[in-house]
Design goal:
Oligomer: single chain
Number of helices: 5
Order of helices and strands: HHEEHEEHEEHEEE
CATH superfamily of the largest domain: Hypothetical protein ph0010, domain 1
Distance between the termini: 20 Å
Structural class: alpha+beta
Length: 199
């Protein structure tokens, strides 16, 4: 993926907020023509969009793990879903929009980690830097790197993600992937509650 310049970052945050505003009016994500966006935003990209209240409380977080559409469109869709489709929260109301804080995590390409146990995995993780995906059959879950702010021990980081993914044993085979992110917008905080509807 091409590097993002400052104007690209500003544009992505504008798209995220505009998509929630459009969702309040039309009930769907902001439609975008990727061809009208800057080159880096036209390229396939995977993102997570996190919404927080003025008191820094999580208000929604949804993302993509695979780059299947233009980055600008991915951000628009995930912002809409974070506001209106995260099942843990009621849909965002019109009077909340102006106070919402938006942050966007742009995911790097996942790298498979060849390990045979949770202990081996914990030993090779780069604390504070690695995002982690665990998959076992149809189960799967991820933690963004910001989760390290609340789960600083690698073993607990892995155990918590196992619980989130519903993985009870490695005997059936577990796939592990690490990735880096570039975060735009709000200050880095714990995002242990991300939802990832697309695997």
């Amino acid at each position: 993926m091409s590097p993002l310049v400052a104007a690209d970052e500003v544009r992505l945050l504008e798209i995220a907020r505009a998509s929630v505003a459009h969702g309040l009016q039309r009930g769907r994500a902001l439609p975008l023509d990727p061809a009208a966006e800057a080159p880096a935003l036209r390229e396939p990209g995977a993102s997570f969009v996190t919404l927080r209240t003025a008191r820094a409380e999580l208000r929604g977080c949804v993302g993509s793990l695979e780059a299947e559409r233009a980055l600008a469109a991915d951000v628009a869709e995930n912002a809409f879903r974070a506001a209106f489709r995260d099942p843990r929260f009621a849909p965002v109301a019109r009077d909340e929009l102006t106070a919402l804080e938006f942050s966007i995590a742009i995911l790097g390409l996942p790298e498979r980690i060849e390990v045979a146990s949770a202990e081996e995995l914990a030993a090779v993780l780069q604390r504070g830097r690695d995002g982690l995906i665990l998959r076992q059959g149809v189960r799967g879950a991820t933690f963004l790197p910001e989760v390290w702010t609340s789960l600083t021990d690698p073993h607990e980081f892995v155990r918590a993600l196992e619980r989130k993914a519903g993985i009870e044993s490695w005997s059936a085979g577990v796939e592990a992937f690490r990735y880096a992110v570039r975060t735009l917008g709000g200050a880095a905080r714990d995002r242990s509650g991300e939802r990832s509807p697309r695997r």
